[in-house]
Amino acid sequence: MIDVDKLLINYHELKRSLGLLEFKIENYEMYRISAERTIEEMTFTSPQGERVSNSGVSDKTSKIALKYKSVTEENNEEHLAELVERYKGQKYELEILDLCISLLEKEQSNIVTDLVISGMNFVETGAKYYMSKTSVRRHYKKAIVELGKMYQNYIPNSKQTG
Q1: Which top-level group of life is the source organism from (predicted)?
Q2: What is the secondary structure of 88-136 as a DSSP string?
Q3: Is the pLDDT of residue 98 over 60?
Q4: How many structural domains comprise the chain?
Q5: What is the pLDDT of residues 16-41, one digit of tens each?
Q6: Is residue 65 part of a domain?
């Protein structure tokens, strides 16, 4: 089962990470894999496929240049795809959490929103809703249980994570 409390505690970190991933994707040209990294990768990997030994020096040079360009482009495409997948996963995780919070009973939803998203503490939240700190904590704990049930019963793959 998913640890809802941990998701709530890390809410702002998830938002920050999502924003940084979005920036990297939008400005990907700045984050492309460098030529040095490609050369290093090609140096420490062994060639695959057939080898031809009777080619001339200039032919080898052009083959190396083409291979270098191909490997660099492939690495950059894989890196961008990885960033996009991470972004999609984190965005989905936050959207589900926001949706589940909004589906709680109004009082629980408001308390969780104030504590987690707005960053208020239990005393401030209690003052806002004319409750004691203990009552706010009790509502928060009930909300975590309800969120856990939502994840367990309605969210795909949430039973496998933990």
Answers
A1: Bacteria
A2: HHHHHHHHHHHHHHHHS-HHHHHHHIIIIIS---HHHHHHHHT--HHHH
A3: yes
A4: 1
A5: 999 999 999 988 877 676 666 666 66
A6: yes
| The one-letter amino acid at 6 | K
The residue range of the domain holding 88 is: 4-45+58-154
In this structure, what token pair is assigned to residue 73? 């482009």
| 69-103 burial: b if 16+ Cβ within 10 Å, else e | eebbeebbeebbeebeeebeebeebbebbeebbee
Whether this model's pTM surpasses 0.85: no
**pLDDT higher than threshold 70 for residue 1:** no
Average pLDDT over residues 108-112: 96
